[in-house]
Amino acid sequence: MIRFDEVSQRYPGGHEALKQVSFELERGEMAFLTGRSGAGKSTLLKCIMRTESLSQGQILVHGRNIQRISEKQIPFYRRRIGVVFQDHQLLYDRSVYENVALPLRIDGYSEHDAARRVRAALDKVGLLKKEKMNPVALSGGEQQRVGIARAVVNRPQILLADEPTGNLDPELAADIMKLFEQFNQIGVSMLIASHDLALITRLRHRMLTLDNGQLIRDEQHPSRQGGRPA
Amino acid sequence: MKARTGNKRPASASSPNKKLAPREWLRQHRFCLKDALQRLYSQPVNTFMTLMVIGVALLLPALLFVLGSNLSQFGNRLAETGQITAYFHANSTASEHQTLVTTLQADERISEVHYISTEQAMGDFANWSGLGDVMNNLDHNPLPASLDIHLPASDLTDINTLAEALASDPLIELVQVDEQWLVRLEQILTLSDRIVLVLVVVLAMAVLFIVGNSIRTLIANRSDEIQVMNLIGATKQYMARPFLWLGFCYGLFGGVIAWLFLALMLLFIHEPASALLGFYGSEYQLIGLGWQASLSLLLGSALLGWLGARISVSRHLTKS
């Protein structure tokens, strides 16, 4: 689904955010990307979104070298990937419903189809009753759920999350992770950046560890079959 | 990946390259227009200021245009009235005068010839000047007989050749042509046309900058939204659309304000202007912009607003 081949990324000014990173995320797999702040987790996700370009190597998504995607085609590529941000990135000038509907509006869904999908997504994250509210009125955990609903409303095959539980207390964080596992169970491939080791080691998924831009560990949870060598 | 049923994507979104269906496209534009109007309405003070600046900028060339068209109408009217006055020698006789009048009346270039005899000239002068008593006391009539010659078209070459021909006639002592006046008027009109043109260009640029700057501020205010849109796959066109409509609205409403200002101004000066112009012809009317120029003003200003937004968007929205 997502394959990194010797990917390096250097910011202007010389700082090397990623160094020769290689791994492959299988279709329907869920993996955590961990490491200290500044280890390159966000950069790695940004490279998949193509908001950062590579200085070396290649990334294949759906078997396609994403560096070859033309500038014009990038929006269409991005529509097939859901993203969840640490700070939710919700728009506070519109309702919960409108926030979740945004990707569908961009994609040109009819009002009728959009309404159905938005409600389905809100139902999944347990916020169906709050669709008319402004996100400001919601708690941090609820806001993050709105962010997740927006990321999945388009039914992407890949879901990326950058520190989705960074601002949440442990209980809410665990809830959010459970939600991600539910999406994973219906076949969505997931890559979640998180430095919350206490939480993610409890969840039994593959863990990719970055340190100073290098992939230093790639461990499959022992309880899972078909684990790959570190 | 598990097969999912009911994953029905709309036809318009099934292929990433495919254009939106026309109905959907229209719906999005309607949505953006509504959004633009709401945004203008939600910041009334800001909107009012911007629209006033645009309106005043557009008012200037429109005003000059109206001034120019009134002047040229006025000029044409004057050009239609008597252009050549020829004065007879004092020692020529009335019968000689009549022969010349007959010849001139046969001339195709001339529409009317008025013969003013010495007596008639005296009477007119006495009436007009109010010096009747003084004139009656003169022992001889000092005023010569004259001809008022009207030409149908205000063609200067016709007037000049005719004036030269008359000047060489032994019966004629002096020929007066309003030529100087007409040439000057024409020069004034050319000048005013040029000034309108220069003002249109300069103020169109001003409108571009005003709209461009307003849109730049709006883009900066909505940078969060643009960032999110960019990440969830909005195309540049999609993100630009609300701003282009905003620019269009700025321009159009600015044009409407300019038009209203102009209409009010014309209404304000109508009475004194008509009174003044009435001396030169009763049917003379102060002319406004007219529907063609009004339409051009509104369309042009809307287009300018759109263009200003377009420039601003291409400069400030492209950073993804």
Task: Describe the overall structure.
- With 230 residues, chain A is an alpha/beta fold.
- Chain A has 7 helices and 10 strands.
- Chain A has helices spanning 41-49, 74-78, 96-107, 111-124, 140-152, 170-185, 197-202; strands at 2-10, 16-25, 30-34, 56-61, 64-65, 81-84, 158-162, 189-193, 206-211, 214-219.
- In chain A, strands 6-7-8-3-9-10 form a 6-stranded mixed β-sheet. In chain A, strands 2-1-4-5 form a 4-stranded antiparallel β-sheet, with helices on one face.
- In chain A, helix 3 packs across helix 4, helix 3 packs parallel to helix 5 and helix 4 (111-124) packs across helix 5 (140-152).
- The longest helix of chain A has 16 residues, at 170-185.
- The mean pLDDT of chain A is 89.
- A 4-stranded antiparallel β-sheet of chain B has the order 2-3-1-4.
- In chain B, helix 3 (44-80) crosses helix 10, helix 8 runs antiparallel to helix 10 (236-277) and helix 10 (236-277) runs antiparallel to helix 11.
- Mean pLDDT of chain B is 80; it is low at 1-17.
- Chain B contains 11 helices and 4 strands; from the N terminus they run H-H-H-E-H-E-H-H-E-H-E-H-H-H-H.
- Chain B is of the alpha+beta class.
- The A-B interface holds A 27-28, 49, 51, 72-80, 83, 89, 91, 93, 102-103, 105-111, 113, 150, 155, 157, 186-187, 189 and B 1-2, 4, 7-8, 10, 12-13, 16-17, 20-21, 24, 27-28, 31, 224-225, 227-236, 238, 320.
Helices and strands in order:
The complex is a heterodimer of chains A (230) and B (320).
Chain A (H helix, E strand, L loop, with lengths): L1 E9 L5 E10 L4 E5 L6 H9 L6 E6 L2 E2 L8 H5 L2 E4 L11 H12 L3 H14 L15 H13 L5 E5 L7 H16 L3 E5 L3 H6 L3 E6 L2 E6 L11
Parallel strand pairs in A: 3-8, 3-9, 6-7, 7-8
Antiparallel strand pairs in A: 1-2, 1-4, 4-5, 9-10
Chain B lengths: L10 H4 L7 H21 L1 H37 L3 E5 L5 H13 L5 E5 L1 H12 L2 H5 L9 E5 L5 H12 L4 E6 L1 H43 L1 H9 L4 H42 L12 H27 L4
